[in-house]
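Archive entry: two folds, one per protein. Generate the first.
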Amino acid sequence: MTTTDETQTARPAGRPRSARAEKAIIDATLDLIGESTSLGELSIEAIAARAGVGKTTIYRRWSNKEDLVVDALATLKAPLPRLAGRSLREDLIACVEVFLHEACDARSRCVMNIAMNEFERHPRLVKRIRQAAIEPRRAALTALLQRGIATGELRADLDVPVALAALIGTVVWYVRGLDPDHQVIQEGVVEQVVDHLLGGLTPR
């Protein structure tokens, strides 16, 4: 049977994207970074070899290594959970729960390690990583603390950036004190972290 042009299904230009290939490329990028491959040493060739794809497959999706690294690291920072809004303490516990578990994950730690240690060598790339993966979290936490000030749950004179540093710094310090071969978060520690911090942040 002859099919006329009018009855043919239109096909998009170019090759269809393969979700499996994209996941393999993202995973390969994260694996190599997690294996202490510096951003300067990381190459498209190494990523392609690890992912089992050709370099052209990568370049069809990302124009350069920088774009790929930003997208890969951004996948490690999912949006914070929907907060109940019933109390500042409850919402902080929900956030710290996420931060602690991410900090125990070798891949997720890459984002903070790169943001803290690679800025002098790769300032433009690190700035993009911060914008994609860190700033949305910072904005959400800032809004949460500002809400706490507005409701009277936090001191009116609270320095929000210092409070943020105390919150994140406590999580990082706690995780670094865990056994690197057996990182287990003790039951109840999330509530303890939040309650200790709130002891210095709430009105007297």
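Generate the second and append.
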Amino acid sequence: MTTEEIRKRTGLSEKDAETLKQTEQMPLMMAELAGADLFIDCMNRETGTMFVAAQAGPKYMPSAYQNSVVGCIAEKEDEPAVYRALETRAPVRDIKAVTQEDKTVRRGRGSDPGRGWKDHRDP
């Protein structure tokens, strides 16, 4: 996601959006160490929903996502920790994301490659 796209969706200043873009490099290393996918989520200033501004996955382990979810909406029901952290302004631990696969397995329908993310991008 470009700095301009982030500014348009979030209302961040040019300096803050550039800082966010520079921060994207950190999850790459952390994803390797954690062996998991990591994301930077931002709030859309017009809708109040969170969207994925950056995504990093481990190189040497399979990602939980078949496709990039950058730009996609992170719904509250699928990403409760993101919204809890926003509401409480405090770090949140031990709350797991609910993936589409989790939902379909509970209904006995197998897995879905969407994995809980709405494939929506703002214009």
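Annotation attached to the second fold: The chain is about 35% helix and 10% strand. The first strand starts at residue 38 and ends at 43.
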